[in-house]
User: Fold these one by one.
Assistant:
Number 1:
Amino acid sequence: MKCAIMLLENRQQLILCPETEYEKNLFNSFSASPKKVHFKQSQFFDTVGGYTRFENSSDFMIVIEDSPEIDTKEKPVGMY
C-alpha cells in the first residue's frame, strides 16, 4: 500500500492507495456500510497471555467500526 500525507493551509489529508487485491477488497468493505472512525495515538504489544493490547504512545492509529444505519429522513432536533 502506498501512503501520502498532504498538509495544506486549511486541511490535512491522509491518502491510502491500495496495491493488492486484499487491500482493494478491504477498502471496498469500508464503503459497504456506515462506519465510525476514531483517531488515536497508540502502540500495540503482546501480553504474556497471548493477547494483543495497545497503549498510548507517539504511534498513530485509525480505528474503523461498523456504525448503525442512520435514518436521514427524520433528523433529531438539533442534529444538522
Note: Strands lie at 2-7, 12-17, 35-46, 52-66.
Number 2:
Amino acid sequence: MNVVGFVSSYCEGRLVRGAVDSLLEVELDRLYIYEGPAGPPLEPELEAEHASELARRNHETPAGGVVVHRGRWRTDGRKRNDALQRIKHDYPEGPTWVVVVDADEVLVNGRYLRDRLAWLVANDRERGASIATPDNPPMARWPLHLVEHDGSMGIITARVFRADLLRSIDHSSSIVTNVAGVRDGWGNYAERSRVWIERWLHAIDNGAMIAWPPLPCEPHLVHRSNLRLPGRTGLRMSEQELAEFARAQAEELAAAEPQPADVAGFDFERRP
C-alpha cells in the first residue's frame, strides 16, 4: 500500500507550513506540493509579498522525498488532475492512497490515518472487492470531518482517495472519472447535529456518555482561511473554474447529490 500527500498552494505565506507539517505525520511515501495559481495570477507585487514559505524550514521528509512543482493552471481542477496523473505515473501499482490538504488547512491526528487506510485495503481484500463488480466495489475514498474557523463542521469526501481507481479529476475535486469511465460527483455535507443530539440524549437516558465529533484520535481537517494574508482572502476558485463547473452541472455531470450513506459505501450514522 502506498500513501502519498498532496498540498495545493498559491501565495499562502507561512500558512502552508502548517499544512505540510500536519501531512508529514501520516508517514507518507512521498509528498507533492503544487505551487501556483489556478486561474489568473495575483499582481507581481502581491505574489512577492505573499510567497509561500516552502523552503524556509527543514522537514523530516518522507522516504520518497518531497516533490515541489511550480506552475500556472487554468483551473483548480486542472491543477489537481495534473497532480493525480503525476502520482499515477510514479506509483503504477496500487493501492495508492492520496491525502489532500490545501495550504490553508491543517490535518489533525494524521498519525492515525494510515491505520484506517490499511484497514480499508484489508477489508476490501477480505470481501473480494473489485472495480469490475459494480455491486462490490473497493472503497475509493474516505470522508473526513472539516471544522471551519467559526466552529461549524461538515463532512468532506474528496480529500482521501485512491489514485489507482481514478482516471481523472475533471472539475476541482467535485467531479471525477474512475478507471471504469464512470463520472461521479463527490460532494460535501453539513454534519447533522440532530443525529448526534439524539445519540447524546439516548446516552443520558441510559446513564452513559458519548464523545462529540471529531472523535478522539479521528483524523480531521481544520480550515484556516481566516488566517490568509490580505490580498488572498476570499480568493478561491477562479471565474473560469466556476464557469466549467456550471457547464458540468448543465451536462448533468453533477446531478442529484448522493445521500451520505451512498458515498463510497460509507454509512455516516454507523461508522465502522
Note: Helices lie at 15-24, 44-49, 76-90, 113-126, 193-205, 239-250.
Number 3:
Amino acid sequence: MNESSIMSRIRIPANWVLVDTDIFSGNEIILSEKTKINIDPTYEPHEWVSRKGTALAVPERLTFDSNLSRMSLEWKTKMEILAGDTVYFDYFGALMSFGNHAQKFEKNTDELVFEEFGRIYPFIHYREFFAVERAGEIIPINGYVICEQVSRLPASPLEVFQKKQVDTNIGIVRYVGKSNVKYLNDVYADPEVAPGDIILFMTYSNRPVTIHEEKMWAIQKRFVMAKFYGSYEDIQKTTTTH
C-alpha cells in the first residue's frame, strides 16, 4: 500500500474489513484471474464472478452481542484475518457494501465504501468471510469448511446423457478451520469434521466459492447434519437427499 494513502492510517474498531477486490468495478466483471468482460451484472452473477480480494485493514476486535443486532456477529469466534491476506467472501454480502454503486434499482442503500485514486474499496462485515489464503494455505474461518462439489449419479439410464447436476446437499470436505466458540442461538454447535469427510448439509446452507479455479461449497459446520462412511457412489445408491 502506498505510504501516502490514507488507507495506511485507517483504524477499524470492530467487525468490518476493508478489502481491495475486483468483484465490482463499474460494469467490469472479473470471470477469472485472466479473463474480464464488460457487462451489466444482473443475471445470477454469484455463479461466475470473482468472490475474493485482499484484506487492507482489519478490525481491532469482533463483537458478539445480541443487542448490537446487525453490527454484531451471530457467533463468537477469533479474529483470524490479517492485513495482506487473500480473503474469500459471500458475493451478496459483499455487494451490499457497494450501495448505489452496484444496486442500480434501489434507492437510499448504504454505501460502505472508501474511494481513493478512482478506485472503490468496500468495508465488508467479518461474518461474510469464508476463508483466507496465506502463504499458499487455505484457512477456513467463521466456523466454515470448504467442500469439493460432487455430481449426482444418474437415477436412470436415460439420465446418463444429460448434463451432470451438482449435488447441493452433499460434499467432500477439503479444508477445515477452527470451530466457532458459541452462537447467539444456543441450538447451534459445531460438530467435528475432518478433510476427506463426506457430509450432508442443510439445504441452502451451501455458499458458492471458487478456490484455485475450482468451484466449491463453503458450509458453516453448524449446518452439517451427518457424516457418511464409504464412497460417494455407495452413498448415492442408498440415500436420497432431494
Note: Residues 64 and 73 are 5 Å apart (CA to CA).
Number 4:
Amino acid sequence: MRWLVWAVLGVFACLLLPVLADFRVAMGDEAAYADPALRWADGLGFTSSAWWQSPDQLWACNFPLYALVCSVWIKLTGLSSLWGLRLLSLLLYLGGVVLWILGCRRAGWFKSWREETAFVLLLLGSLYATAPSQYIRPEALGAAVFGFGLFGQTLSSPRLRMIAAFVTGLLTALSGLQFVVALALFALVWLVIAGKKAWKPVAVCVAGGFVAVGVLVAVYWHFGVLDIFLRSTFGLGSNRAEQWHGWRDPMLWAASAVLVCVFFSRRMAHRERLAAVVGLACGPGMATALFILSKYPQYYGFLAALALCTATAMVVPAFSGRARIAVLGLLFGAGMIGFPLAALMNWNVMPARDHAALENWMSEQLCGANKVFVDPSAYFAARSPGRLVYTQAVLPSLSEAERREIAAVVLLPDHPLAGLRSEIVLRQIGGEWRLDGAYPQDSAASSRCATLDPLSRLSYAGAYHFEVWTRMSQALDP
C-alpha cells in the first residue's frame, strides 16, 4: 500500500495543475521574486524593476538562489508566465515532500505506509502548509532543500552524507534567512537528541553556509551593491504586527494539542514521547522563533508544519480505543477547515481571478505602451515582449527622465495604503493623466455559487480590480 501516499500527492498535483494561474490572485511578492529572472531571460541582466533599488544595478535586495533557479527554469522551458513559474513552485514543493518522505522512511521514522499517508494528509489539510506550491516565492525551494537535506543524511556512505550536509548548508544560506533560522533549529534539536553523532554533519553544514555567505558578500561588494543587500535584508524591519497569519492554521493548534497529550501521557513509549518533543520544538517552537525574530506570515507555515505533521503521523498509531477516535476526529476536523475549505473558497471565486482574461484586457489597454508602471498584482498580466514594467518598489530610484517615459499606469481603484493610491502615484510620476479603462467590466462573473460567497471573508485577497491611466500626450486613440 505504499503507493497510496504517491497517489494522494498525484491527485493533489492533478487538481492544482490546470488552475495554478487562477487559484490565487497574483501577489506583490511574486512579481518581486520573478522579475530578476525574467529580466535576465530578456537580456537585461540580473537586475530588477520591481524591488527597492535602481533597475540598472545588480539585483541585491534578497538572497538570490530562488531567482537564479527561476532564470534557469525560464531558459530551459520558456515558461515565464504566472502559470509557468507557479508550476516550478509546485514541482519544487512536491519534490521536497517526496524526498522528505523517503528520508523519514529510510531513517525509520515512518514504519509503514499508514504513517506516510497520514503525514501527507495532515500536510495537505493544513491551511498554509501547501501555500509554497501555489505562489512564486522561495518557500517552495526551501521545501526542496530541506527534503534533500534529510534524505542526504540517510545515505549509507559517510562521505556522501558530509557532502549532502555541506550542500544543504550552502543552499539554505543562499535561499533566505527564514530557512537559516529553520535549519538552525532543526540542527539544534538534532544535537540535543543525537549528541556527538550529530556534531560532524552539523559543523559541515554550518561550513557550507559560511562559504555561501562569503561568496555572496564578495560578489555584492565587487558590484558595489553590498549596502543595498544589507539594508534590504536586515534594515527594512519586521512587520510582525501585520504578518502573523501563520498562527491561524487550525492544524498547527490541533497537531500541537495531540503532541502535548502524548508528551504528558505515561502510557506512551519513549519513541512517541521523543517524537512529540521534536514536533513541538520544530512546530510551534519554530513558529514562535520566526515570529519573535521577524514575522510569521502564512507562507512561513510550511516551515512549522513539516516537522509537526511528521511527529503527529508518527504518534497517532500509538493511540487506541476512544482516544484514537478523539485524536483522529480532532485532526480530521482541523484538516477540513484548513486547506480544503480554502480551496473551496478559491474555486468559487476563480471566475473573478481569470488571469487569461486579465491578460487579454491588459493587452488591449496597454497596446503601444513600451514602459508602464503597475501595481505588483498586475505585473504578469502587463508583461509582454519589448515592454518594460515598473512597480512601486522601484519608483524612488527612477530618474525624472525615466518617469517621463512611463506611458501608462495600472493601479488598484482604492488601494488600502494611502501612499499607493492613484492620485499620489500619478503625482510622483509626474505629467497629466487620463483614466482610460477599468477592470473588470460589469458583466464579469464574480463567483460560481452565490451560496458559497460568505467563504470569501476568509481571505483578504479576492478578485482583480484595476484602473488604467495613460499620459495625455501619449494617450492611445479610442
Note: The radius of gyration is 24 Å.
